[in-house]
Design goal:
The protein is an alpha/beta fold. Helix content is 30%, strand content 25%. The strands form four sheets. Strands 1-7-6-4-5 form a five-stranded mixed beta sheet, with helices on both faces. A four-stranded mixed beta sheet has the order 8-13-12-11, sandwiched between helices. It is globular. Bound molecules: coenzyme A.
Length: 322
């Protein structure tokens, strides 16, 4: 009998503080219209001082557990994707396990930058398919605001904070149909965030903040996401019209529109959260998925294509029947 990974719950958390493009125009030399036209972003959420990746992850996770109506003790694996962990160790996943009061499960973090949640779904699916785990919690949680240089107008306009979660359970009903994940480590210079604590030498201008050559990242992202769409459809013998919803990583509306066009989809079939959330890195796909599920757009039995692209570069897709 084939074992599938079914979505049994979703959750999401956004910090209360809203930072608008207008707020940013008082911090750096930029305008609301420049940011909106180039990116599609109007505002983003910023974590309060007491909030961390694990505290936001806990809230998103509790929502997913509530939707699934299970006991948290049933979770046997927690995977947290984050580039902004509370601590180098213990992993944020271990901290979330403790926050949820789960004594008997396995927890670990993964780091795949903005592709983190898609990579997390892929890993979870392998563990469920092999029978290693029956109920898996996948979370993407990020406090990007803490690794953004708020004096750099080319990056600070893009990012926001938040957490998204999904609960998967083993089932004989089709769920995750396929995942396709890739990386190419040859692009470090185009997008990176230094770790001053562990680096042998830290350049003065680096100081632990995101550094990006946006224009070059943009071009690679559009081409790569086009290829992952082709790969996913071809490998799973699907036509464009078989996909009901595109749930993309939320980096730039123009990148998302190019992917939707490749799928022959109207933007009405795309779950967009970018305008009010910005790029929440590994949290963005699961936050968008949660929104689509909770507002009733994504319905049981429909086919969803998630895709993401991030530093590394890393990229991938997750194709699932909800
Ligand atoms: N406000 C006003 N002007 C700005 C600005 C800002 N916030 N940021 C940059 N500029 C200026 C630049 O200095 C440059 O000026 P110049 O022409 O005088 O040199 C000009 O705008 C164009 O800069 P460029 O970087 O070529 O703009 P762009 O059209 O590529 O848009 C991004 C910039 C970052 C919005 C876009 O490249 C992008 O979204 N890239 C992908 C980023 C991404 O997805 N990253 C995460 C991947 S997970």
């Amino acid at each position: 009998m084939t074992i599938w990974s079914n979505v049994i719950g979703t959750g999401g958390y956004l910090p209360a503080t809203i930072r608008t493009n207008h707020d940013l125009s008082e911090m750096v030399d930029t305008t609301d219209s420049w940011i909106y036209e180039r990116t599609g972003i109007k505002s983003r959420r910023i974590a309060d001082v007491h909030e961390t990746a694990s505290s936001m992850a806990e809230i998103a996770a509790r929502q997913a557990i509530e939707m699934a109506a299970i006991d948290a003790e049933q979770i046997d694996l927690i995977i947290v994707a984050t580039g902004t962990p509370d601590r180098v160790y213990p992993s944020t996943a271990c901290l979330v396990q403790e926050r949820l009061g789960i004594k008997n499960c396995v927890s670990f973090d993964i780091q795949a930058a903005c592709s983190g949640s898609v990579f997390g779904l892929s890993i979870a699916d392998q563990y469920i398919k092999t029978g290693f785990a029956k109920t898996v919690l996948v979370i993407g949680s990020e406090v990007c605001s803490r690794i953004v240089d708020w004096t750099d107008r080319s990056t600070c306009i893009l990012f926001g904070d938040g957490a998204g979660a999904v609960l998967l359970a083993a089932s004989d009903r089709p769920g995750i149909l396929a995942t396709h994940i890739h990386s190419d480590g040859g692009y470090e210079d185009l997008l990176y965030c230094p770790n001053p604590q562990a680096a042998a030498q830290v350049r003065q201008d680096e100081a632990g903040f995101i550094s990006m050559r946006g224009n070059e990242v943009f071009k690679v992202a559009v081409n790569t996401l086009g290829r992952i769409v082709d790969e996913t459809l071809e490998a799973n013998h699907l036509q464009q019209s078989d996909i009901d919803w595109l749930v993309p990583h939320q980096a730039n509306t123009r990148i998302i529109a190019a992917t939707a066009k490749k799928l022959g989809m109207s933007m009405d079939q795309v779950i967009l959260t970018l305008e009010t959330q910005g790029n929440t890195s590994s949290a963005s796909v699961l936050l968008a998925f949660n929104q689509g599920v909770r507002d009733g757009r994504i319905k049981r039995g429909q086919t969803v294509l998630m895709e993401a692209f991030g530093a590394g570069f890393t990229w991938g897709s997750a194709l699932l029947k909800f």
